[in-house]
Design brief:
The complex is a heterotrimer of chains A (442), B (159) and C (321). Chain B is an alpha+beta fold. Chain B is built from two helices and nine strands; from the N terminus they run αβββββββββα. With 321 residues, chain C is of the alpha+beta class. Chain C is built from twelve helices and nine strands. Classes of the chains: A mainly alpha (442), B alpha+beta (159), C alpha+beta (321).
């Protein structure tokens, strides 16, 4: 099935239908978000499925089926199932300085700063969806391939980061086969598929971060050398980071910071902060935005930097702090992912029942398509949720500690400096976990 | 949950360290935390307005009786208490009175259960029924586990 | 690539999703659905007055024409009722829900659809007009004068006079009920119409004339009982809770959450009841309080409902909270 040309376009087409419905509901439906398909199915159902099931279980698989880049790709390729060869695009190459995750970091922070408004106002949500599609189409006309997905999409950024913890990967069977294979159909494309739209060379693929699971190389590879593997979760995390990837480290730090800020702002008892976040007053929002950016870009990264530096200082012959910052930032990924699962589980259990009403009455017009219009709001498992959340957080913490130990052991296989190098990082991780535990349970 | 120790083929002897860890974990999870006060009765007026409850955080002890007078001061609101299955609707000008026994410990959020505007899903208050066993046990468990993993790594480099 | 046929099929599917589905949905909602109904369906958006109130805020219907009104609340919970005298109360309509009523008006006249659940500082402005016209005599809506308000006017009673606050008097209707058999009650005090047009203070003077030897505080209690003789029904206390309590308070002490928003402090009934004539209260409810933010309810309540409300205010006044 994955080898079929139609697989990805059809999946995208199918998901385009609810996407169109979500945009319509946002523009035409009730402004009561909890009864609006656009809000309920994107921010409750899709978000929970993405963060609780897809990313931890299957990595980038959402990117396989995501409808947002689809129209742009179809315009660019002059075809839906398969392009005719001649492209409709300026085909520009993405500037070298932007070939990293910084734009995705910035885009996520912008969405995060406005998330209280986006989450609660159907029309604003619809605007964001249409805006993302618009940017994707525009970029397809200007730039080559899926430049939007790889370097710009604010959602793809963190999906890629956390997909490194997933138990699924696309890899080549034998890298030597790729080295010896001169034609490199996976890059150039052939009559069975496109050259990698994500601008990745599968032969050197060793981490999930940049692979969008678009399945093109499965089709183009003439050597039958590309496979999808099940693997031990988190297999990418202890691998060496090539080059300077402070952008990637910051992605992990921003996501972890947000996973602490979100439950405090959204689920906490502090109404004033919520009103600031929702821009009820502009001055209040400015305070919120400043605090948010300082916490995500200065305080949390600064503390982590200190932890890394402290660890390296106390073990002789350590790495440069910059290198260690890169390498050890992978230890933040399991805990960050667990924190987002915790957040999403809580939100989905509390508000999941809205989906039943919204599917029968997607616009709040009084429809009753499936007879579930009048199902009331009922939080599920509200008594057990805290225990579940504690278990997820502690699981994430231990996974993170283990990752930091593996990184430490890789740099010093004797194990003599592992404790010195990782203890401050472990303290940082434990402190983050305790903050999360007390926010959720305390 | 933890995959900290890659298990080699042969069984390891039970060392003193492992025994201590086991005792610690069992202790953290099971040691009883005594209730320390005779039950009291709390009379609490909770006012709901867009988008907050006042008071936003309540602290009682397990076994206490909580008598709530629920009012609303701007539009219709609701009051759903996590874990207790309590749900009331209140409209401005009228009040709802109800009583429950705080017989489950932990933090339970109370949430507005009647859509009341944009921020309705985040209109949340907190009832803490002490002693809050779950958060203390979870915190201690996290600390013990982290300590054990670090000590383990120090002793026996592997992997 | 041999994908031309596939591309064509996919393009059809794409067109269906992007153009067809929205067109079908909009076509059904705004074209087919009203067309399928065998009578007129009017969609009315219900928002707090600050956000736009009812739209449309005028609906015209002919006598004998069946009509469905669908009220969609979009911001906060509203209570939808239509009066006077139609007995239509849809109760709460929460945001994103639609409250719907189908009926066939028989009496020509001007009715009001209104919100009866406090929804904002301007809640009471949330009203729309339902005009029921008789096709045989269009424009012939007869304005009926209210006999009680007319009588007040004829007697030159100032409806907007400041209420006199009772000092040192603590009437209690349940004590009065127990003492009722020990006093001589003249027939005028048994007459609801007489009581409506006289204050309890005036009633006390009449009662004292007939019972010179009875202590005054006993007579005060008996008057309190007589003026609140009608036991409140669930309907009338509900009517009060829905329409009055937000400002005047659940127990009529002037301490509802809306009290902070009004131009003048809402009246606390126990303070002024003793010197207040019931027909003035009646007129104030029907006509509204000039310059005080007390809305008019004459377009919402029937005369009977209003008289029962006045009795209920006495009941609240003379009952310990």
């Amino acid at each position: 099935m994955l080898l079929s040309r139609a697989f990805q376009p059809v999946a995208m087409l199918i998901l385009l239908a609810p996407f169109v419905l979500a945009v319509m509901a946002g523009l035409l439906g009730t402004s009561a978000g909890n009864r609006n398909f656009g809000i309920v199915f994107v921010w409750i159902v899709w978000w929970a499925v993405l963060m609780v099931l897809l990313v931890p279980g299957l990595g980038r698989v959402w990117c396989t089926v995501c409808p947002i880049p689809a129209p742009g790709e179809w315009v660019q390729r002059r075809g839906i199932i398969g392009g005719a060869g001649r492209l409709r695009t300026r085909g520009l190459r993405w500037p070298r300085r932007l070939r990293n995750m910084w734009l995705q970091n910035a885009g996520f922070l912008v969405l995060a700063l406005f998330s209280m408004v986006i989450l609660t106002r159907p029309s604003v949500s619809a605007g964001v969806f249409v805006g993302l599609i618009g940017v994707a189409v525009g970029m397809s006309l200007l730039f080559e391939k899926r430049t939007f997905c790889r370097y710009v999409c604010p959602i793809g950024g963190f999906i890629g980061l956390y997909s490194m913890a997933a138990p699924v990967e696309l890899r080549v069977r034998d890298a030597q086969v790729c080295v010896d294979h001169r034609e490199k159909d996976c890059i150039t494309g052939n009559d069975r598929g496109y050259g990698c739209p994500w601008m990745v060379y599968p032969g050197k693929l060793d981490r999930n971060l940049d692979c969008g699971l678009c399945t093109e190389c499965l089709k183009t590879c003439t050597m039958d050398n590309v496979v999808i593997n099940l693997r031990r979760p988190g297999a990418d995390l202890a691998k060496p980071v090539r080059g300077n990837r402070i952008d990637e480290a910051f992605k992990a730090l921003i996501m972890l910071a947000c996973s602490i800020i979100y439950p405090a702002v959204l689920f906490g008892p502090w109404a004033t902060v919520k009103e600031w976040a929702a821009i009820e007053s502009f001055g209040g929002w400015l305070i919120y935005a400043a605090a948010f950016l300082i916490a995500t870009l200065v305080v949390i990264p600064g503390l982590f930097w200190l932890a890394v530096a402290g660890g390296q200082r106390s073990c002789a012959g350590g790495l440069t702090v910059r290198r260690a910052f890169n390498e050890y930032s992978h230890a933040l990924i399991p805990l960050g992912l667990a924190a987002w699962v915790t957040f999403s589980v809580g939100f989905a259990l509390t508000n999941g029942s809205y989906a039943l009403a919204a599917i029968s009455d997607p616009f709040g017009w009084g429809w009753d398509v499936f007879g579930t219009r009048d199902v009331g709001w009922t939080p599920y498992l509200s008594g057990a949720a805290p225990t579940i959340q504690a278990a997820i957080l502690i699981g994430g913490l231990l996974f993170s500690i283990r990752t930091s130990l593996r990184v430490g052991l890789r740099h010093d296989p004797s194990g003599e400096t592992t404790l010195a190098a990782t203890a401050p990082i472990a303290a940082f991780l434990l402190a983050s976990t305790l903050a999360l535990l007390w926010l959720y349970l305390g | 949950m933890s995959q900290a120790a890659p298990v080699p083929a042969q069984r390891r002897p039970i060392t003193a360290g492992r025994a201590i860890l086991l005792v610690l974990i069992v202790g953290v999870l099971l040691v009883p935390i005594p209730g320390f006060r005779t039950p009291q009765t709390h009379n609490i007026v909770i006012d709901a307005s867009q988008f907050e409850f006042s008071p936003a955080r309540l602290t009682v002890n397990r076994g206490d009786i909580v008598q709530v007078t629920l009012t609303a001061s701007d539009v219709v609101h609701g009051f759903f208490l996590d874990g207790y299955g309590i749900d009331f609707r209140v409209e401005p000008g009228t009040s709802q009175e109800f009583t429950f026994t705080a017989d489950r410990s932990g933090k339970f959020r109370y949430r507005c259960s009647v859509a009341c505007g944009a921020l309705h899903p985040f209109m949340i208050g907190e009832l803490v029924v002490g002693p809050n066993e779950l958060v203390w046990r979870a915190s201690a468990l996290a600390a013990v586990a982290v300590g054990a993993m670090l000590l383990h790594a120090r002793k026996r480099p592997s992997a | 690539m041999t994908t031309t046929r596939g591309n064509r099929a996919a393009l059809v599917m794409l067109a269906f999703i992007v153009v067809g589905v929205p067109a079908l949905i909009i076509g059904y909602q705004y074209g087919l659905r009203p067309a399928l109904a065998d009578h007129r369906v009017v969609d009315i958006e219900a928002l707090a007055p600050e956000n736009g109130g009812f739209s449309p805020d005028v609906v015209r219907v002919e006598v004998g024409e069946t009509i469905t009104l669908r009220f969609a609340a979009d911001d906060v919970t509203h209570g939808i009722a239509i009066g006077p005298g139609l007995g239509i109360d849809l109760g709460h309509v929460d945001p994103g829900h639609v409250g719907e009523v189908t009926f066939t008006p028989q009496e020509p006249g001007t009715y009001t659809y209104y919100c009866n659940t406090w929804c904002s500082a301007d809640h009471w402005r949330m009203r729309g007009v339902l005009e029921v016209v008789d096709p045989n005599s269009p424009g012939g809506v007869n304005v009926q004068l209210d006999p009680i308000i007319e009588a007040l006017g004829a007697a030159s009673v100032d409806i907007d006079s400041e209420p006199e606050v009772a000092e040192g008097i603590f009437p209690d209707r349940s004590r009065g009920e127990r003492s009722l058999d020990t006093v001589e009650v003249p027939p005028s005090l048994r007459d609801p119409d007489w009581r409506l047009s006289h204050s309890p203070a005036e009633g006390l003077e009449v009662l004292q004339a007939d019972n010179p030897d009875t202590p005054e505080d006993v007579l005060v209690d008996v008057v309190a009982y007589l003026w609140s003789e009608t036991p409140p029904t669930d309907e009338i206390s509900e009517l009060f809770a829905r329409n009055c309590a937000a400002c005047h308070g659940e127990r009529g002490r002037g301490d509802g959450p809306g009290a902070a928003t009004t131009l003048e402090e809402p009246v606390a009934y126990p303070e002024v009841s003793w010197h207040r004539r019931g027909d003035i209260w009646y007129a104030k409810i029907m006509r509204g309080g000039m310059g005080t933010d007390m809305p008019n309810f004459g377009t919402l309540f029937t005369e009977e409902e209003t008289r029962l409300l006045v009795d209920y205010l006495r009941y609240l006044s003379f009952t310990e909270s």
